[in-house]
Design brief:
alpha/beta, Rossmann fold, 5-stranded parallel β-sheet, 5 strands, about 15% strand
């Protein structure tokens, strides 16, 4: 079974408007082992607190996302942070960079809607957009 780490945008769209996702991403979400990073929760929380994102109560959204996506959580570990150091400077968003690093270190395929993130794909880092 494939294992998928959802980037923040995929997680947000999956909960509210899954039909907006590409067919390959929708198929992956239905067939795989889905993982949500605590980094996504942090990003959603911060953007909600700043008024840049409306998901209602982000704590409720986090629980709902796990339930709807049948997902497990991935914590942030020191090896994830260390892996950011070796990433090429393709993307400037720190949340996206740490999600790329988490996927790489954890052996997960990263699901994303961001074409810039696709440029990180290698033999050891699978990315589905």
């Amino acid at each position: 079974m494939s294992r998928y780490l959802l980037d923040t945008n995929v997680a947000l769209i999956s909960v509210s408007e899954p039909e907006r996702l590409t067919r390959p991403i929708r198929a992956a979400l239905l067939s795989g082992y889905n993982v949500l990073s605590i980094v996504t929760y942090w990003e959603v929380m911060l953007k909600s607190m700043k008024g840049k994102l409306d998901v209602g109560d982000p704590r409720t959204w986090w629980s709902l996302a796990h339930e709807q996506l049948r997902a497990t959580s991935l914590g942030l570990r020191t090896e994830h942070v260390s892996a950011v150091y070796s990433l090429p400077p393709i993307h400037q968003d720190p949340f996206d960079r740490i999600l790329v690093a988490q996927a790489k270190v954890s052996g997960l395929t990263l699901l994303t809607t961001d074409s810039t993130i696709e440029r990180y794909a290698t033999e050891e880092l699978k990315i589905l957009a």
